[in-house]
Amino acid sequence: MSKPTRRTISAAKEVTSLILAHYMSAVQAHDEGRRVAWCTAVAPPSEILYAMGIQPLFPENYACVSTVMKATQEMFQTSEAHGFSRDLCSYARCVMGSVLGSEAPFGGMEKPDVLITTKNVCTPYLKWWQSMAHALNLPLLVIDSPRITHHIEEFHVKYVANQLKSLVKELEKITSKKLDEEKLKEAVKLSNKAAELWRKVLDYRRFKPCPIGVTDSSAAMFPMVISAGTTETVEFYEKLLGEVSKRVGEGVGVINDEKFRLLLSGIPFWHHLNLFNYLEDRYGAVFVYELYTANWGITGLDFAKPFESLAYKILYNPVNMPSKWGEQWVVKIVKDFKVNGLVLLSSRSCKATSIGNIAIQKFLKEKYGTPSVILEADHTDERAYVDAQTKERLDTFMEILEAK
Amino acid sequence: MKENIGVEKFRELFETRDAVTTEWKQNSGKKIAGCISTYIPEEILYAADVLPVIAVGNTENLLKADMYLPSFACSYMRGFLEKLLEEKYIYLDIITLPSLCDSIWGFYGIWTQISENLPIYLLHYPSAHSKEALEYFIEEVARFKNFVEAFTGKIVFERDLETAIDVYNKSRRLLRRLYELKKKESPPISGVETLEIVLSSMTMPKDKHNQLLEELLNGLAERKAYPEGKERLLVSGHIIEDPSLLKIIEETGGLIVSDDLDSGTRYFSSLVNESRNPIEAISERYFNLPSPYRSRFEDRIKHHIALVKEFQVDGVVFLTRKFCDPYLFDYPILNEAMKEEGVPTLHIEYEYPIAKMSLKTRVEAFIEMLR
What is the ipTM of this complex? Predict the structure, then answer.
C-alpha cells in the first residue's frame, strides 16, 4: 500500500505563532498597566475581558502547549511532590507544577491579577482554580453554572447572566475602570462571527473527501479558545474557511484515498498527536468531526443582549448538557457526516469527558449498530500511554470496520 | 427492669438496613428516596412523608457497574450503581442527588438512559458563595419541594417542614451529645461505634433513631471507658460506608475521637435555624456545610483546626477515596495547614476491597511515631 500524501492546511500553521503572541500579550498587558486573568477555557467570558482591556490566559491551553512541547515531566514531578495525586486532572497537575516553581515553557505563564472560573465543565474547574488562587494568594471569581438536566431554562440563563454582571463590577474594581458596553457588544459580535466561521469550517467536513483533518482542526481551534472576541480571530477563520472551501470546490481531501470516516470523542492525547497520522497512513481513515473542537463553535449570540448570550454559551456545552441530548447530537453527526465509527478517548484523569464512554459505546452499538473503540490513556500525562497497546486496539477496530 | 440499649443495636440496625427499610415501607405504605451522600435536604422529603435513605452501596464485587462506569469513577457511585443493578434497592421509589462532582453527574447521565421505572432528581449545588448563589440555591430547594409534592401528591405545608426540622435538629443535637463524650480523656465509645451510630441514623427513620439514641446516651455514661493514653486520632474524608476501614485503624491502638466526614460531624454539627422561614433556613444550612465540594480552603482549614483543639487530637488521618477529586485537591492544602499547626498527619488513599495489610502497616507506623 502506497503511503498517501497528507495535505496540511496552511492557515493552521499560523497557530504556533499566534500562541506565542498570546503568551507574550499578557506580558505586554502588564507592561502597559493592564490586568491579566487566568480563565477556564470552555466558554470563558473573554468578550468581557477584552472589552475591559484585561488579557485572559488559559491554563488548560498552557498545559496542552506544554505537552506538545514535551515539557511536562518536571511540572508533574513538582506538583506530585506537593501532594497532588496522579489521579487528578493532568492539566491541573501540569500547571500546578509550574505555579509551584517548576521549570516551564516561556518561564511559566505571566502571573495573573485575578482568576476566573465558569464551573461549567468539571470538578477541577472549581478545585484546580481554588488551588491556583491559594498558591498565588490571589482572588478567585466563580461564575456558577447549573448542570442542565432537561432544557436550558430562562432561570438558568438569568442566574448566569446576573453573575456575569457582578463579575464586571468586581473587574471594574480591579481595573478602576468602567466597562464600555459598546465595546462589549462589539466583542460579542466578533466572537459570534468567529464561531460562525469555525462552524462553517466544521460543516465543510461533511464532504467527501474531507477537506481538513483532526490534526489541523485541533490546532485551528486555538484562536477560538484563546481570543474569542477579537478582529484577529475573525480574520484567522476567514482565511481558514477560504482555504477549506476552496479544497471542497476542487474535491481535494486531507488524504488522497479516503476509505473511512471517523468521529473523535474526548481530548486528544496531546503527547501523541501522530496517532492520527497512523490511522490516515495505514487505513485511509480520517476524522471528520471532533466533539472536542466543536465545543468552541457556539453561535447565535445576540450582541444586543451580551450577558444573556454569554450565559447561554457557558451553559450550552456538551459536558454540561444532558446525556440524552449528547446521544442525539452524536447520532445526528454520524448520519450527517457519514461516519463509519467512533474513537472514544478515555483519559483516566478527565472524568468529565471520559466517564460516559463505556455507556456511550454500549448505547451506540445496541441502539444504532454504530461501532466504536475506547482508547485509554491520559490527555497530558504521557506516562499513562502505551503506544503498542493503543495501536493494537486501533488495528482490531479498523479490521472490524474493514469487514463491514 | 428494662435493660439499657447497647451500641451493638446500632451496628445491627445498620447491617440489616435493607430489611429494616423494607419492613418500614410495608408497614407504612410510604415512599423511600435514595439520597446520594449527605447533601440532599432530607427535611423536604421527610416533610412530604418520604423516607430519605442515604445511599450505602456495595463495597465489593463491582461487576455489573463495570458495564457502565469506568474504574476511575469513584467507588461510592460505582457501589451504588452495583447495588441498583443487583436489584437490592427495589424499595427505592426515587433517587435524589446533589450536583457535587463529575462522578455524580456521570452516574446521573447513565441512569437517565438506562432506568425505566426508578426516577432520578438532581439538585444543583452552587460552587460560588455569593448572594446570587445563595438566592439561587433557595429557589432550587423550593423547586425541589415542588417536585417532591408533585411526586408524592402531598402538599407540604410550613408546619410539615417545621416538624421535619424539629426531628432532624433533634437527631443532630443527640449526635452532638454523643460526640461530646468523645472529648473526655477516656471516651466511653470508639470511632467505629460512633460511625455505626451515624450510619444507622442515615438509613432508618430519624424519629425512631432519635428514641434509640436517647436511650443509649442515658446509659452511656455508666459504660466502661476506653483506657487513657490511646493516641487520639481525627479522620478526615468522604462518607465511610464500611466501618471495617476505621476498625483496622483502631485495632492498631489509636482511638478515633473525632472526624471531618460526611458520615460524621459534617452530618450533624450544623443545625437548621428554627426561627426562620423553613425553606430559607434549610437552604442556608446545606449551603454552608463545610465540604470539599464547594467550601473555600480557609473554611475547611479553620474547621479542622477547631476539631483538633476541641477533641485534643494527636494526629490526623486523611482517608481519601481513590479518584475522588474534591478530596484529592484539598489534601495538599489541608495537610500543609495541619503541619503548620504542628499536627502530624497520615494520608491514605483507599479503594474497595480495602488493602487491609498495607493499611494496617501504615497506621501502625504512624501510631509509633505519635508515641
Answer: 0.96
